[in-house]
């Protein structure tokens, strides 16, 4: 399975299997500054090498936070087949300090 972004909430999924039909569940979650803000799932059946577009039910707005990431998991039953992460918006100049655990970095505004 491969996914390609068409735009921020539309993705093109392609089965990489050449001889078998792929039946999976796609689970997605939008994180805003590491906090889950919306999620969903879709059942997807793809014939060998078939492509299909899915639209996820969210819209980023100007008031969206500093860093938005879409997490996509592929499952068949309880078995996780794959996982992808898409960065939707990079931190902006409004976000000056980023901390992960004990490490912090400061982003500088370029004038």
Describe this structure in words.
The strands form 3 sheets. Strands 4-3-6-7 form a 4-stranded antiparallel β-sheet, with no helix packed on it. The N and C termini lie far apart (43 Å). Helices cover 0% and strands 60% of the residues. It is mostly beta strands and 111 residues long. It contains no helices and 9 strands.
What brief labels describe this structure?
single chain; 111 residues; mainly beta; three-stranded antiparallel β-sheet; 0% helix
List the helices and strands and how they pair.
Layout: E1 2-7, E2 10-14, E3 22-32, E4 35-46, E5 51-55, E6 68-76, E7 79-89, E8 97-100, E9 103-106
Antiparallel strand pairs: 1-2, 2-5, 3-4, 3-6, 6-7, 8-9
Number of DSSP strands?
9
Helix content range? under 10%
Q: How far is it from the N-terminal to the C-terminal residue, by CA?
A: 43 Å
- Overall 3D shape: elongated
Unreliable residue runs:
95-111
Main β-sheet, spatial strand arrangement = 4-3-6-7
| Secondary structural class | mainly beta
Largest sheet: 4 strands, antiparallel
Q: Compute the average pLDDT.
A: 78
Strand fraction equals over 45%
Number of alpha- plus pi-helical segments: 0
Radius of gyration: 17 Å
Helix-strand topology string: EEEEEEEEE
Provide a compact summary of the structure:
With 111 residues, the protein is mainly β.
